[in-house]
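The record is kept unedited without comment:

——
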Amino acid sequence: MQLTTIGLDLAKNVFQVHGVNEHGKAVLRKQLRRDQVVPFFANLQACLVGMEACASAHHWARKLQTLGHTVKLMAPQFVKPYVKSNKNDAADAEAICEAVARPTMRFVPVKNVEQQSVLALHRVRQGFVKARTAQANQIRGLLGEYGLVVPQGIAYIAQRVPALIEDAANELPGTFRLLVSRLLDHLKLLHQQVEEIEGQIKVWHRSSDASRRLEKVPGIGPLTATALVATVGDAKNFDNGRQLAAWLGVVPRQHSSGGKATLLSMSKRGDAYLRTLLIHGARSVIYRATQRAANDNWVVQPPAPTRPLPSDRVTRHGDTSDGGTSDGGTSDGGTRDGVPSEKGAAPAV
């Protein structure tokens, strides 16, 4: 039995195998238990194995690659059109086997163990951040039922809530005070977990040359840099930056027909977590650039035309009425030691 291409439908316990020969004829349809997968492929000659990029796919891809097989992962949405009839494990394995042999198919790079470990840190941190936000909102909502309003922002919870539950004038029941105190302890624990995981991510960031190079890009910090390196892996998998942008889902969707190009909103394909980090970083760059431009307007503005003041308006040397300056000082809109004031207007002449 000469197998050239195999489609492997992954699962927790029962795996479905579909194999074809060099003529494309199906010669193998088989179910395997989890402990039978490695011995089965170890006894096969090297062939092309296709799998969907789903849970445990990267683990099985690395395992089969060590046995000499060529493993290619595909996005499930690219495999779905090849399912001929109703969905079942056998039909899915046959569709995977058909899709992996297509010359125009797009494949997902296999991640190594280090990449998966860094991404695991990011996913766990993201879960703790969501839990921390939910806990803060719960505390704010419970206090609101007693007429105690805490401003928006998670920092105000730690700053103001302890004083509120200690204030005897609030007429809060003792059990409620103890309950809020317990919730505050849980909030502090979640915050501690987030900081510890961020510390582990930064340690890996300092040990990665690619991540440290990415950090030099405006708007990218250790979190975004490590997530980008761990998710993308080898950037040579993309021909150009436009392909990477499309893979991230930050390009417009297209719905064109009849030679008329129709561009829609952002596609939002790809990794939502990584796209969120990049968008927040870009927003930060734009915000800081706007603030810097507002503070630096006085540099690019030409000086206001001056005219001699009437002698009756000059009281003494260096002192003028009508908003002048004294001894080289600045008015409300001027600068001092080269630093613009809050209003950021042009310096008085």
Q: What stands out?
A: The chain is about 45% helix and 15% strand. Residues 312-349 have pLDDT under 50 and may be disordered. The radius of gyration is 31 Å.
